[in-house]
Design a protein that fits this description.
The chain has helices spanning 22-25, 41-53, 60-63, 135-146, 150-156, 161-169, 172-183, 186-224, 233-294, 296-345, 355-371, 373-491, 493-498, 528-566, 571-648, 654-698, 704-710, 714-738, 755-816, 828-851, 893-915, 934-947, 961-966; strands spanning 2-9, 18-21, 30-35, 78-85, 88-95, 98-101, 108-111, 114-119, 158-160, 856-861, 874-879, 884-886, 922-926, 953-958, 969-974, 981-985. It is of the alpha+beta class. It holds the Pfam family AAA_23.
């Protein structure tokens, strides 16, 4: 992964759009994000993380507040990142969810989060060429291309030193959580869980089978009626089965004896019951005949009463009809009198007329009422029209009031519109001046800062000149010392050549093989090493002189540029001018901000004028329409009123007169029907009375009262008939019993002893039933015990392989989960993490030894923790000076930074290798350099230089001034509110 370009707008502390060109910054492989605390260094790393994954690292990601508080309302918050992953260049654009002011009205509205991915070199296979715009699809695609989650990215690309300092001092659980996030050991945790779940399942299955065996044993003991022994279960089962077989044989013998005794007792009982039953039947027949003879007079009286009731029944129906007709005649006369009084109450005098006359009068009045039906409808319409006239008058008055109100409103609108238009023109003019005033304010603000920095720039030039003078003097002194040493060496060159002579060897000067008097070195002579050291000192002094002269040139150039920008103006003059421009800008901004509101108010006034004009025309038309309709309707009402007055006569209105006529007609019809019904009833009464006299004579009754005295209800008649029939049947049955042949030799005085036979038979039956029950119980128990013993044997044999399998699974599960025979108490997941941590320790040790100049190394330990806690994730430091292993907590602040940085780089190498190796072409190291001395900082910088090998780009995030001096400034970014500056250097 290589970053090319980053843009942030209204993001974090950056109010405006800022651009960071990583291609330019990374051309040398190393760049620095420098600035004061709070200048926004880490925000740029947050922007990179947000563009890739939609989240930011650490606690900042929990707040979810990414929009700049000082951004313009219309300025969108977004991050744009161009990068290359696996040779595929793309552009990511993301915007977070934030609240912004509403464009219309007051309050705020939620701006939804957005994301897009655009392929700059053509889409890879399997991806749409037009790119992606859904947030979830963008995140899923980026994570797939990078091959790591956002937690891994934050750890291996944005190397957070504080987190690794915590990692050094963390306990086993905390260290395990971080390593799990980075190396994705969920599959091993799943294996552990699979073993645990399988053991639980198998334990439940085994316990279920054991419970089944216990239930079979309990059922066997329950059927056997014995307690379960603690041991020798099989022997106990055999003894119970043998005892049960003997009990069955004994029960079979007892059952046969009891059944034989029962058969003999039942035969004796049956013979005595037959004899007793014959004597009883004979006695009952004699007793019934005697009782019937005593009841003979009463049966004769029942026969006479039954005959009289049957004769009276033929007359009762006719008498009832005669009484009913008499009652109907009385009711008809009463109804006729009531209807006569009702007709007289309606004012009709001729109530004694016959039915024919009454029908004629009713027809005449009915025709008159029919003629009034049409006028009733007109009377109803007359009432509705009068109400409508009142409504039209009220409607016309309301419309006139509306005309007056609308006229008053329209009078003031033209003046208001003119005032709003004048104010809008002024606001528009102010808006046009804003950009110029803002530019001028920015220039004056920069000039004030330049004026503030002028004395420091002058001092910097003076100090640079002093350093140049000192460097020139030092260079000249080094040069003079070198020349002096060279002269001394030349003077002693003979002795130097003589030191190289060998007996028998040729002299390099004269060529002689003999050396009778070689020169000896004089005191203060100079050798080659001393001269070389002096030459090196001259070169160093020359480099220092060149650096001082370059620094002086830069200081003079900066001072000249500063004075050119000030153009002779003092700080007080610039501040006064800045105050004046600031005040003017605030006034103009206030006027410009009213432009939108004034434009809206002007449009509202013009729209209100148009609406009111339309409403006024409509109100005037409504007045005219209501008046026209009211006058036409008034004329119709007056004409109809004359017709209705003639038709109502002496009544209040036509409806009342018609209702009166209809009431008289109904009363006449009712009286006619009542008189006809009364005449019909009189005729029926006469006919029924004649029929009743004839029926009484035929039934041999003198009067109706005599007939009613002889009459009986139907249930009484039925009861009498049943009594007579039952008595005859009983007499015939008794005589038939006496005539039976089998009773010929039986006397009513005979006695038969049945009770003793019954007791003997009952005792024999009880004994037989007890024997049968005992046999059935013994047989059932023996059968059930045999079945239960068989099932118990089957279950016992079947559970043995399950118990062996579970013992093996239980032990293996304990080992996988860090218990049981696992001596180090390391679970499978911890074992894998320990292996990963060991790889990290090896990779980090190479960095740490270089940074600590060979003193420190990481030591990984897989021993168990204190008091039997889990092990495998121990990480200590080997101090080569003392040869002892030290806890990481004993390191100093600077040493902790070196260890944390080494650990972070080592972990980045291991994770990068696991996720794709060469994928990570860009790394960021965040803070921690302030704890290092100058020499250690040189070592760390050399290590970071090595990271650039192979085209890798390393970004440092720090406020340390020495790093700023090492890496020249390339880009400055100013923070929104405080004005603090972030410098991006390379």
């Amino acid at each position: 992964m290589r970053l090319h370009r980053l843009e942030v707008a209204a993001f974090g502390p950056y109010r405006k759009r800022e651009v960071v060109d990583f291609d330019a910054l990374g051309s040398d492989g190393l760049f620095l994000l420098h600035g004061d605390t709070g200048a926004g260094k880490t925000t740029l790393l947050d922007a990179v993380a947000f563009a890739l994954f939609g989240v930011v690292p650490g606690a900042r990601g929990e707040v979810k507040r990414l929009r700049c508080d000082f951004a313009e309302p219309d300025e969108p918050t977004e991050v744009v990142l161009e990068l290359t992953v696996h040779g595929q260049r793309m552009r990511l654009v993301r915007s977070p969810e934030y609240e912004r002011p509403k464009r219309r009205g007051e309050g705020t509205t939620t701006q939804q989060a957005k994301a897009s991915l655009t392929w700059l070199d053509g889409a890879p296979a399997g991806h749409p060429p037009e790119g992606l715009v859904r947030i979830d699809e963008v995140s899923r695609t980026v994570q797939g291309l990078l091959g790591m989650t956002h937690q891994q990215f934050f750890q291996v690309v944005l190397l957070p030193q504080g987190d690794f300092a915590k990692f050094l001092r963390a306990d086993t659980d905390e260290r395990e959580k971080l390593l799990e996030r980075l190396f994705g050991t969920k599959r091993f945790a799943d294996v552990e869980a699979w073993f645990r779940d399988l053991r639980v399942h198998k334990r439940r299955e085994l316990e279920s089978r054991r419970q089944g065996i216990r239930e079979w044993v309990a059922r066997f003991a329950q059927v056997a009626g014995q307690d379960i022994p603690e041991d020798n279960l099989a022997e106990w089962v055999g003894e119970v089965r043998l005892h049960t077989e003997k009990a069955v044989e004994e029960a079979q013998s007892a059952e046969r004896q009891a059944r034989s005794a029962l058969d003999s007792a039942e035969k004796v009982l049956q013979a005595r019951r037959t004899a007793a039953e014959r004597v009883q039947r004979l006695r009952a027949a004699h007793h019934r005949l005697s009782t019937l003879a005593e009841q003979e007079p009463e049966r004769l009286r029942w026969k006479e009463e039954l005959a009289a009731a049957r004769r009276a029944a033929t007359v009762l129906r006719v008498a009832a009809q005669a009484e009913r007709c008499a009652g109907q005649l009385e009711d008809a006369r009463t109804v006729e009198q009531q209807r006569v009084r009702k007709l007289a109450a309606l004012g009709y005098a001729d109530t004694d007329a016959d039915a024919v006359e009454l029908r004629r009068q009713a027809g005449k009045l009915r025709e008159e009422a029919g003629a009034l039906a049409g006028l009733v409808a007109e009377a109803e319409q007359q009432s509705r029209d009068r109400r409508m006239i009142a409504q039209l008058a009220e409607r016309a008055d309301q419309a006139r009031s509306t005309v007056l109100v609308l006229t008053d409103k329209l009078d003031g609108i033209p003046q208001l519109a003119a005032e709003l238009r004048e104010q809008l023109d002024a606001a528009t003019t102010a808006a046009g001046r804003l950009e110029g005033l803002r530019t001028k304010k920015a220039e004056l603000t920069a000039a004030v800062q330049d004026a503030t920095g002028l004395p420091a720039a002058v001092r910097a030039v003076a100090e640079a000149e002093e350093r140049v003078r000192a460097a020139v003097d030092a260079h000249q002194e080094a040069r003079e010392h070198q020349l002096k040493l060279r002269e001394l060496r030349l003077d002693g060159m003979a002795a130097e050549l003589a030191a190289g002579l060998v007996d028998g060897g040729a002299c390099p000067v004269c060529g002689s093989a003999e050396h009778p008097a070689p020169a000896r070195p004089a005191s203060g002579s100079v050798d080659r090493e001393q001269e070389a050291e002096a030459e090196a000192a001259v070169r160093r002094a020359e480099e220092a002189r060149s650096a001082a002269e370059a620094a002086k040139h830069r200081a003079e150039t900066a001072l000249t540029a500063l004075r050119e920008r000030l153009r002779g103006r003092s700080g007080e003059e610039l501040e006064a001018e800045l105050h004046q421009v600031t005040t003017q800008l605030a006034e103009v901004e206030g006027q410009a901000q009213r432009r939108t509101r004034l434009a809206a108010e002007l449009r509202s006034a013009e729209a209100e004028k148009s609406s009111l004009t339309d409403d006024l025309v409509a109100a005037k038309e409504a007045v005219a329409a209501a008046e026209t309709q009211r006058l036409a309707l008034q004329e119709q009402v007056e004409k109809r009123e004359r017709r209705l007055d003639e038709a109502r006569g002496e009544h209040a209105d036509v409806r009342t007169r018609r209702a009166h006529l209809v009431g008289v007609v109904q009363a006449l019809d009712a009286l006619t029907e009542a008189r006809l019904a009364r005449a019909t009833a009189e005729e029926q009464v006469a006919e029924r009375e004649e029929e009743l006299r004839s029926c009484l004579a035929q039934a041999e009754f003198e009067t109706v009262d005599e007939m009613r005295a002889a009459a009986r209800p139907d249930d009484v008649i039925a009861r009498l008939e049943k009594r007579l029939t039952d008595a005859a049947n009983e007499e015939a049955a008794a005589r038939a019993v006496l005539a039976e042949p089998e009773l010929a030799d039986v006397s009513p005085d005979d006695e038969v002893d049945v009770g003793s036979a019954v007791e003997d038979a009952r005792a024999a039956r009880a004994a037989a039933e007890t024997a049968v029950a005992q046999l059935e119980a013994a047989t059932t128990r023996a059968t059930e015990l045999e079945r239960l013993a068989g099932r118990l044997t089957e279950e016992t044999e079947a559970i043995r392989p399950l118990e062996e399998e579970f013992e093996e699974l239980d032990a293996l599960t304990d080992v996988v989960n860090g218990r049981g025979q696992n001596a180090r108490h390391m679970s499978l997941r911890s074992y894998v993490l320990a292996a990963r941590l060991e790889e990290v320790a090896v990779a980090a040790t190479a960095r740490l030894q270089a940074m600590s100049q060979g003193r420190y190394s990481f030591v990984h330990s897989d021993r168990a923790g204190a008091r039997g806690t889990r092990g495998g994730l121990g990480l200590d430091v080997l101090d080569d000076y003392s040869g002892t292993v030290r806890p990481a907590k004993t390191l100093s602040g600077g040493e902790s930074f070196l260890a944390s940085l080494s650990l972070a780089l080592g972990l980045a190498d291991v994770v990068a290798a696991e996720t794709g190796g060469a994928l990570l072409d860009t790394l960021f190291v965040d803070e921690g350099f302030g704890t290092l001395d100058a020499e250690t900082l040189d070592v760390v910088m050399n290590i970071l230089d090595e990271l650039r090998a192979g085209g890798r780009v390393v970004g440092l995030v720090s406020h340390v001034e020495e790093l700023r001096q090492r890496i020249p400034t390339r880009l400055r970014v100013r923070k929104a509110r405080t004005g603090s500056t972030l410098e991006v250097q390379m």
